[in-house]
Amino acid sequence: MNDEIKHLFQVAKQDGFTVVNAQIRWMDVQPDQSYMATETTYIADGNYRSLNFSNSKTIQTGFGQEHSFSQSLAYVKFDFNCFSQGKLAGAKIRVFVTEAMAQGHSIKLYGIEDDSWDASTLTWENASNNQGYAISEAHEVTKSPSYDLVKDVFYYDFNVTEFINSYCLGDKKASFILQSETSNPQDGQTIQIDGADGAHPPQLILSIDQVYDWDYLDKVIGWAEDAGLKLEILWFGTDTCSLSIDNRVPYYVFHQYQKALTDKADGRQLLEDIPFFRKNKDPMYGVYHHLMCKNDPSLRERESTVVKAMFDHIADYNVKHGYQNTVIGCQVSNEPAVSLLHGGRRVNSRGELVLYCQCDNCMEALSAAGNDLQTYYEETMWRYNNSIATAVKESRYSVWARVNNFHVPDATGVHLNEIKRSTTGTNIDFIGLDVYSDVPKTLFTYGHAPITYIDPLHPGKVPNYAVGNNLVMNMENGGSGIHKERHGDDGHSIGTPKYANLDRLLLASLAGGGFLNVYDLCSPDELGLYENTEDHIPMPINPDAVDRLRKTQLMLNKLAHDLATKQADGAGGTMLKFFNPISDLEKSSVTKSFRKSIRSLEVMYTTKDNGVGIAVERGEKEIALVSTTASDFRLQELARHGVFSITQGFYNADNRWIGSGIADYEIIGDDVIVHMPAYGCVQVLTTTLIPAVDTYLYEAEGLPYDFSGKAKNEIGEEGGHGGHWLKISSMSEGMFGVNDFITFTVHVPSNASKYEIVTGYRSAVANGTVQLSIDGEEYGSSVDMYTTIPAFKQASAGIVSFSHSGEKKFKYTVIGKNAMSTDYQLGFDYIELIPVID
Ligand SMILES: [Zn+2]
């Protein structure tokens, strides 16, 4: 297992990845300790009262009302002599029931202080703690809770914390009697449990809260360092995938803190609290699934204490290992939820849907939220995530702290976190989404606008993640593999490769202003780029896809500094321009050309094989170019500014050009044509400066935007400036109309104080009429976007004076529609700002 991760990190490095994420479970830094039973047996009445059953692989307990011979009691002994810590914060025993029961049975657990009993000689007759079926001189420890009665062939846990702490820490031995509480009218159904020699022997699990084990964490950091990668810690604590899982979280957390409750005990009809709960049979994901309550202040404090200790330890590690600053961030929770147990809501004991935890703290939180359920969800989630993020920030190793969401959690937190950021402050740096789409347009749009069409089951439910200062990250999007069922955006066919266009998805993400994290490199989730052979050698599941991804990433690394520091033009930026980024994998033999400008130069990218190009304005005399295929960049009239050099190479980690010879280019007239090698990088230097741009044209589909109503946004293909346009239409009839609006965020440059504002739009038969306002003030006359035959048109809103530069809200409000029009749809092509010099 360890060697596999180490090896996979090396593979990731070779494939051009720069950062790896690794889970650090709470259990990794505070591991529970498990002890198998040293002795087990059972005793039985009637004909068996003098018999010893210590050779039996199973032990049993049952109470036959009619026949004394069907009465039996099970004995279990543990020796935890190697346990060296002091008082326990939690202890439980886990037994495995080997036969299914016709009905739920309750097991009562007794602790006996005298451990001198000998399994090899114990009988009903000579045992000292049984008075008939009753137990004496023993401590009643616990019994099966009503929601976890013994029925299935599976594990059952019993809390023994108090008994161990009170009676067993001296000799480090613990003995228990298991007694079936359920009388059995049919006489015969006894509970069968694996004994010490069974396939799943009883275990004693001890849990401590003040001691840490950094061994695994240190190894993971070391493997990343060996591979030359940065590492993000995925904190797998209280909530991972809207579950608190018993193989990720130490037992003491379940024992000491508040579980989210479907029912609160009332002392009359309901005698015990009933938690959000289910059991799981896939050993990867533990046995007991709960959801801990996010409003328990003691739990938040404890988890924060552990996370701060972890990052303090990372600070010490960093000093000891030469300040490599390998750890660069922390995901504080993975796909969390307030009141959804993974996969859906819970019902209570009366079969009613439970919308929130029933504990006292939650009742208080709900009341503090004015009994508004959504406010309670959002505030609860934010407090929980922010408390862990604060621990990261207050440690001696402060790095970014972020959250990632699944599609429809009960609280997304994005909007609330931006409100906190601009008011009282937040320690959650950003919140991302597991998008899981293989449509380049979807990932392009995700970086700067809502993605309304991502989830057919929940249309319009995914909020806009590109708000405020939220960095838009797509945390999980699939590696590669084969579809086993139909699902996703397009209802993929069974047997078709998953995410075969990973390279395209990465380029589309970056072009739209978002960041893509590949989930995952290798795992049993069937989403990995690799699968392990029996010899533990990672093999690519789709070698062609992995090969293209590797080449693309190695190409992008040649421009790493610019990609990390400049806003892509697909999100309103002006210095980092992508050509053909939302095309999909299909090979096209048609020659395609795309024009964009770098400063005042027109740059034309021509590709015969559907390549993707990037051009970067690095300075007044410097342009960088990359292309995924052998394609041409034509830099029009560049020669007028003097060609100083055009070389191949890459920008290194310090953002310095490392040239490896003259690039392939020709000069025709004043135009310079650079013949790009596939996956190559070229630097163009001029002798005199390239004049600044004289007009600012923003593609509508590549500006940050948001809209009201239940509308959907789509990127239109058939023409328009730059080859694409943006369509806004009602999700279903009548859901987008008068007073609905779309707001673009436009960066007004500081070059001039006055600009003529031109809107490029696409008219059509179902379009509405809009009025433009900028930061709340109306400009120009209304624009009727209706025509019988679709056409690209433009409308000037006149000359607008801006008192200062920076981000402005360009809002187009639907004020009505042409009498002939069938709906209120809108089509936007671009927004142009033409400087007006007085
Ligand atoms: Zn609660």
What's the structural domain tally?
5
Strand content: 25-35%
Distance between the termini: 70 Å
Helix content: 10-25%
Task: Please identify, by name, the CATH architecture of the largest domain.
Answer: Alpha-Beta Barrel
List each distinct ligand once: zinc ion
Q: Structural class from helices and strands?
A: alpha+beta
What is the CATH level 1 assignment of the largest domain? Answer: Alpha Beta
Major sheet? 6 strands, antiparallel
Radius of gyration: 33 Å
- The name of the CATH topology of the largest domain is TIM Barrel
- Overall, the morphology is elongated
Q: What's the count of strands?
A: 55
Total of helices: 13
Strand order of the largest sheet: 34-37-38-44-40-41
Assign the CATH superfamily of the largest domain: Glycosidases
Runs with pLDDT <50, length 5+? none
**Average of the residue pLDDT scores:** 94
Sum this structure up briefly.
With 838 residues, the chain is of the alpha+beta class. 17% of the residues lie in helices and 34% in strands.
